[in-house]
Specification:
Order of helices and strands of chain A: HHHHHHHHHHH
Radius of gyration of chain B: 26 Å
Strand content of chain B: under 5%
Largest interface: A-B, 96 and 99 residues
Helix content of chain A: over 70%
CATH superfamily of the largest domain in chain B: MetI-like
CATH class of the largest domain in chain A: Mainly Alpha
CATH class of the largest domain in chain B: Mainly Alpha
Number of domains of chain A: 2
Oligomer: heterodimer
Number of strands of chain A: 0
Distance between the termini of chain B: 34 Å
Number of domains of chain B: 2
Structural class of chain B: mainly alpha
Shape of chain A: globular
Number of helices of chain B: 14
């Protein structure tokens, strides 16, 4: 009798185990399914509205058919490049500090605060950029949007640069120092080049991230019906235009939003896939 | 002074091999060694290391500046409303009376819905990726989840607005209303846009981060824990549920709170599906508002110090909430990963 109960409870344990493991597999499948559904829908639905006009024409006012997002595509590239240019020196130097110069306590504090900064909602960063740039200068501007994007990018660059620098074998560091060069020459001449793949990977991923950011642009870049007019004037951006057009009541604008989403997702995921593929081959 | 340092360093070289490299680095950077030969290099080193320090401090200063600038810009609203800003449900730009309660409520409610949906799925997927899946499946699986994280918020919002919202309206909300309509949560007409859609969209957006962080936490559990449990005759699930998951508990909680931080501050996708109605309601079907969506949809049209100040005050509330949440999460995750033998 005792043996029988032991057997049934063992059976129940096995069933329970199988059930829960199946749930875990199912959960993973759900994640992949969500990705497939979203990606598939946007790619299939979006590509049907893509045409040459969409890339080569400027946007048109309501009621006029046609038009495209040429200026917004251009604007997104400008803003992302501006954000990268502003963020790169700060992020990279902070990464060098964390990996090479900071004592353990200072590194822990700075790293922690960098992670906290990375967790600040992008909309709050937008409000900040508005307060320090748009308001004093009395104008929405590409510059303020670039600064907002840079603030989002800095902690990402700093942390990925730090990790890439730490992966450089200390034998290289020691070899450089043994040749009699100073420490900063060793960092600039040997260690940073040694970590270049990792740093570029991090910067490209961060670039892809800010290229798709929308919330901080709403009240910094604002959007522009007159194309790109320089750093101190409002500027359009692809994600911003997708947002505006998606919420508009006009069918052809909504279609353009889908086309824009297609383009943006190809840009962002393209960078992600290529960069991860190249870096995983390099490190293998 | 130099002599005692040298004495200690000899001790350390003998005693700790690892300490050796660090000390040598310190000696080199202070240029105790070879300081007479390379006077110029010493200044170069000092300038360069101070430069990196300055840029790091600049990064930290941004965080401090965020809080200070937002506080200063919110002052007109803080002075006018004081604490009643948190308890009032009004949002009246004409009379310039503003209260944050519906936005705070909506932010917390949509984040709570998203956690309820996302946590089981994320933990299941993390267990699968780290414990169950064969090696050839684990890497592409992780890669796909990272891709999900990389999709811009506005695109998920677009998909949510045109695909998810109609689906949530019918069949999801009409089914819930018909079968669970006795609960206040599921009463009212099915709009589609509202808290439920926002919660689902947020769940989709935080699943990748919770999955990735908990996967790393589970991987940090030493094999001896699993082997000991297996040796006691446990099934695979018992190994996971009684040895692995309890061991990395703080990492899992940290991952969940990181996801919460994302959900609280997520803007675009939520703005597009939540319906933007400034009201307190118990029903998940009704349109609502979050702090982020309120700021996103009104900031560029706001005028007047009090109106703008109120929106900035909302942003400040959001900043403080997410700072607290993120600090707790990072501390928990770090405690977990520090235990990992490196």
């Amino acid at each position: 009798m005792r043996i029988v109960t032991a057997n049934t409870s063992n059976l129940r344990r096995k069933w329970m185990s199988g059930l829960m493991l199946a749930f875990c597999g199912l959960a993973a499948a759900i994640c992949v399914l969500i990705l497939a559904v979203i990606l598939g829908y946007i790619l299939v639905h979006g590509i049907s509205f893509i045409n040459l006009d969409f890339i080569t024409q400027a946007s048109r006012p309501v009621g006029e058919a046609g038009g495209g997002m040429r200026d917004e595509i251009f604007g997104t590239l400008i803003l992302s490049a501006l954000g990268t240019v502003l963020a790169l020196p700060i992020g990279l130097m902070a990464g060098v500090f964390l990996a090479e110069f900071a004592g353990p306590k200072a590194a822990a504090v700075v790293r922690f605060l960098a992670d906290v900064l990375a967790g600040v909602p992008s909309i709050v960063v937008g409000v900040f950029a508005y307060a320090i740039l748009v308001r004093p200068m009395h104008s929405y501007s590409a510059l303020s949007a670039g600064v907002a994007l840079a603030i989002i990018m800095i902690p990402i660059v700093a942390r990925t640069a730090e990790e890439a620098l730490r992966l450089v074998p200390s034998s290289m560091r020691e070899a450089a120092l043994a040749l009699g060069v100073t420490r900063w020459r060793a960092v600039v001449g040997v260690i940073i080049p040694g970590a270049m793949t990792g740093i570029v990977t991090g910067v490209m991923l961060a670039f892809a991230r800010i290229a798709g950011e929308t919330a901080p642009l709403i009240f910094t870049a604002l959007g522009s019906a007159f194309g790109v007019q320089g750093l101190f004037k409002p500027i359009g951006a692809l994600p911003l235009q997708i947002y505006r057009y998606a919420l508009s009541p006009y069918a052809d604008w909504q279609q353009q939003a889908w086309a824009g989403a297609f383009l943006l997702i190809v840009l962002v995921l393209g960078i992600n896939i290529v960069v991860r593929w190249v870096s995983s081959r390099k490190f293998r | 002074m130099v002599e005692t340092a040298a004495l200690f360093s000899i001790w350390d070289v003998i005693k700790y091999d690892a300490k050796c490299a660090e000390l040598r680095d310190n000696l080199l950077s202070n240029n105790v060694v070879g300081s007479k030969k390379e006077g110029a290099g010493r200044y170069g080193d000092r300038i360069f290391s101070n430069l990196t320090l300055i840029f790091s401090l600049l990064m930290v200063a941004i965080l401090a500046a965020l809080v200070i600038v937002l506080y200063l810009d919110a002052l007109p609203a803080i002075n006018k409303f004081g604490f009643s800003f948190f308890t009032s449900t009004d949002w009246d730009p004409v009379k310039e009376i503003f209260g944050a309660l519906p936005a705070i409520y909506g932010t917390l409610l949509s984040a709570a819905i998203s956690l309820i949906i996302a946590v089981p799925i994320s933990l299941g997927a993390a267990v699968f990726l780290s414990e169950l899946s064969p090696a050839w499946l684990s890497r592409p699986g992780s890669f796909l989840i990272e891709l999900l994280a990389a999709i811009p918020s506005v695109i998920i919002g677009l998909w949510g607005l045109f695909v998810l919202v109609p689906f949530v309206r019918n069949p999801v909300e009409s089914w819930l209303g018909a079968n669970l309509g006795f609960l206040p949560l599921f009463q009212g007409p099915p709009f589609g846009v509202g808290f439920l859609s926002a919660g689902v969209i947020l769940a989709i957006m935080i699943i990748p981060i919770i999955t990735a962080v908990s996967r790393d936490a589970i991987r940090a559990v030493p094999d001896s824990q699993r082997e000991a449990m297996l040796a006691l005759g446990a099934t695979r699930w018992e190994v996971i549920s009684r040895a692995v998951l309890p061991y990395c508990r703080s990492g899992l909680i940290g991952a969940t709170i990181l996801g919460l931080g994302r959900a609280l501050g997520e803007t675009m996708a939520v703005t597009m599906v939540i319906g933007n109605s400034y009201a307190l309601t118990a029903s998940l079907f009704s349109p609502g508002v979050t702090i982020a969506s309120k700021v996103a949809s009104e900031f560029s049209e706001a005028s007047g110090d009090v109106f703008i100040g109120s929106l900035v005050a909302l942003a400040l509330v959001l900043l403080v909430i997410t700072l607290v949440v993120n600090i707790i999460a990072r501390l928990l995750v770090w405690r977990m990963t520090e235990m990992r033998p490196t």
